Amino acid sequence: MPDPVKRSPEDARRTWEKAHDSAVETYGEGRRAHQTAYAALKHKYQKVGDRWEPKGSRGPSDPQARSPRGSGGHTHGGVDVLGSSKQELMDRARKLGIRGRTSMRKHELAEAINRKE
Questions:
Q1: I need a surface site. Which of 2, 19, 50, 92 has the fewest CB within 10 A?
Q2: How many domains does the chain have?
Q3: CA distance 21 to 17
Q4: How many CA atoms lie within 13 A of 40 on its CB side?
Q5: Going along the chain, which residue ranges are E strands?
Q6: What pTM value is reported for the model?
Q7: What is the C-alpha separation between 114 and 93, in angstroms, rounded?
Q8: Is pLDDT of 96 > 60?
């Protein structure tokens, strides 16, 4: 289990572990099993700093998670761009000391937060 997941609430750890174990049975140990576990985790949690915290509402965290498999798209790491308002992302960016945030669009804020965390 990755360290950020270990530092997260018990339910987040359980979600990741259950999805990972199921994916290992299906795909075998490796990258695909980890991706599957993170995809399950991202529906209820968002990455904040060095841990995963509950989101305000369940659902996909970015356009890639919303679209069907194999259709591409862009991910924003663990930042919940769809479930967060621009102001919430601005507040997180301010706390992280991200420069130029006032001129950024929502997806740019999410990318900057993801890079900084």
A1: 50
A2: 1
A3: 6
A4: 19
A5: 45-48, 51-54
A6: 0.56
A7: 10
A8: yes
